[in-house]
Write a structure and sequence with these properties.
There is one protein chain. The strands form five sheets. An eight-stranded antiparallel sheet has the order 6-5-17-16-15-14-13-12, with helices on both faces. The chain has a four-stranded antiparallel sheet with strand order 18-19-1-20, with no helix packed on it. A four-stranded antiparallel sheet has the order 4-10-11-7. The chain has eleven helices and 20 strands. It is globular, with a radius of gyration of 23 Å. The chain has a domain of 173 residues. It has 563 residues and is of the alpha+beta class.
């Protein structure tokens, strides 16, 4: 497989270089995909921030897809469905395929912690192996016709309601909808839910004595010197109140370079985009850098081995996960770089196991529970931060240690939420002992308009109106044979490998039928802004390479291996 690096260079000095290249005559807008994996050129702009971003710039044209339309809308090659879009079911399924399988999650590349195994540059992970004694949930299921309807009519994939020590509502996308691709063993991205998980790990670092308290300062990591993060209090960084507002566009783009925040390691960003930066007013300013700083600082402070042990203690021993889980390192990170960012993968039940561990910590007043209570007490008001009115991200008016809190109509109740792009949400009522967890392919947050999920009714109101938990002793944990657990776990891994191959073949065959050739091009990005396209150039008599060239500004350069 030969590779070409295609370098897209915008002609910044000629306003005419893109004249007429968009339908309305405007210039294409350069942005970065929400996961930071490649550059995007869109007419009318694009939304590349997480769901809590203050800037929403998706064009109306990206919302044109609907249930009655036919075919797959690939949104110009965007790695994620634009936030305001209303995609049809074919498009939703295609993007579910991309989210699950396009990054070669299965199998890992040996023991190198490398996520991409074949065509893409390596992206490394912080993996946690499954528990030998995974927590077994009790269930006392009841029907909720409205949630069932949401499963049939929206992009919702999973809904779990936990109360009184049991799962009482458990819905997964039907087989004839997305269930032939998404199943109980599927590891799905967390999006910004992982910010909260990094904060939870930081709480355990305090409990182990690695960090003194939430008021400890970042004053001993040389990488942060001469930047706005030097000497900051941990609590201010956790609360998104680090005075960063002068340096970011939305949540995931540096203002002075337009690089994706999730692309470089913290040290790289401090040496480039944030060198000489100064802290502004300590107000709420949501961004993707703060969790990167907290997680990377922990790795620097305690070392790789202790950090791995910390992850094992939180997820493997305490939450007792059933499958393996992992955080991603930054996209451009090398294997041994100090690096982590807020993207995490786990199964639907393992997300619930992690949330239950948090609930247990709070209710049992453990050290980690005291940490959770401390960050809730130290919460800040978000103020007029610019979120779209009426959406799920404006229901919480406060922020506490990478948790959303202060939900409207709930007063000072300790209800804390995690929220990620596309409908990944977890709400925990620490006082009344209730958890609601959702996963989705997409949520444009416009319900009841098409493309949205009714978060307010199925999640927010379930928590707001939920009765206090029963005083009765919770039922004992079910006993499951350990050998059966191992057998089921191995079967799940094999199922996911086979599923990836099936859907790879399915979409390749679809492309062959539609275009007469497979569109088997995988995207990556290099530090200089190049886009790496991997393609088979040895059979050009049988197939062509096709690209969209805005303004004829493609440049070809030789890769390091001479290809």
């Amino acid at each position: 497989m030969k590779k070409l690096l295609l370098l897209l260079i915008l002609s910044f000095f000629s306003a005419q270089s893109f004249a007429g290249s968009c339908p309305d005559g405007s210039d294409p807008v350069k942005s970065v995909s929400a996961d930071g994996t490649y550059f995007v050129y869109n007419c009318g702009g694009g939304s590349n921030n997480t769901s809590a971003s203050t800037n929403s710039s998706s064009s109306a044209s990206k919302s044109s897809s609907n249930k009655s339309s036919k075919g797959i809308d690939r949104f110009g090659g965007d790695s994620e469905i634009p936030e305001e879009a209303n995609p049809n079911d074919e498009t939703l399924k295609f993007y579910l395929y991309r989210y699950l399988y396009s990054h070669n999650i299965y199998p890992y590349c040996g023991n190198s912690r490398e996520l991409f195994c074949e065509d893409l540059p390596p992206q490394f992970t912080h993996p946690v192996e499954s528990s030998k004694n995974p927590y077994q949930f009790n269930s006392d299921l009841r029907e909720d016709k409205y949630i069932t309807q949401q499963m049939q009519e929206t992009a919702l994939l999973s809904y779990l309601l936990y109360e009184d020590g049991k799962i009482v509502i458990d819905e997964i996308t039907p087989e004839d909808r997305f269930g032939d691709m998404f199943r109980d063993s599927t590891k799905f991205h967390s999006q910004s839910v992982a910010k909260t998980l990094i904060g939870y790990v930081a709480g355990h670092a305090i409990c182990k004595g690695y960090i003194e308290s939430v008021d400890s300062r970042f004053n001993d990591w040389p990488a942060l010197q001469n930047t706005l993060y030097h000497n900051q209090k941990l609590i201010d960084v956790l609360n998104m109140a680090a005075g960063t507002q002068e340096y970011f566009i939305g949540s995931n783009k540096f203002k002075n370079s337009s690089r994706s925040v999730t692309n470089p390691t913290v040290q790289d960003a401090m040496e480039n985009e944030l060198k000489g930066s100064k802290k502004s007013t300590s107000i709420y300013n949501y961004n993707n850098m703060n969790p990167n700083v907290v997680g990377s600082y922990l790795i620097y402070k305690i070392g790789d081995e202790n950090f791995q042990q910390l992850l094992d203690d939180v997820f493997k021993k305490k939450a007792r996960i059933e499958g393996d889980v992992f955080f991603l390192k930054n996209i451009s990170a090398k294997k041994d770089d100090i690096s982590i960012w807020s993207q995490f993968y786990a199964t639907r039940y393992d997300y619930l196991r992690i949330a239950k561990a948090m609930l247990d910590d709070w209710q049992n007043d453990t050290c980690a529970g005291k940490y959770l209570k401390t960050i809730h007490e130290r919460r800040i008001n978000k103020g007029n931060w610019g979120g779209r009115p009426g959406t799920r991200v404006t229901l919480p008016e406060g922020y506490a240690g990478f948790f959303h809190t202060g939900y409207k109509g709930m007063g000072s109740r300790p209800v804390m939420g995690m929220d990620g792009y596309g409908g990944q949400t977890i709400l925990i009522d620490f006082e009344r002992g209730r958890i609601v967890a959702t996963q989705a392919i997409h949520d444009n947050m416009m319900f009841p308009k098409p493309g949205g999920i009714d978060f307010k009714k199925i999640s927010y109101e379930k928590i707001k109106n939920g009765k206090p938990s029963s005083k009765a002793k919770p039922p004992p944990e079910p006993v499951v044979d350990s050998q059966q657990i191992i057998k089921e776990r191995n079967a799940a891994i094999e199922t996911e490998k086979n599923a990836k191959q099936y859907w790879d073949d399915y979409y390749e065959a679809m492309d062959e039928k539609l275009y007469g050739k497979a569109q088997g091009i995988l995207f990556g990005s290099s530090a200089d802004g190049s886009i790496l396209l991997s393609e088979d150039f040895e059979n050009l008599d049988q197939r062509d390479i096709r690209v969209s060239d805005y303004g004829k500004n493609w440049f070809v350069k030789e890769d390091k291996d001479g290809n």
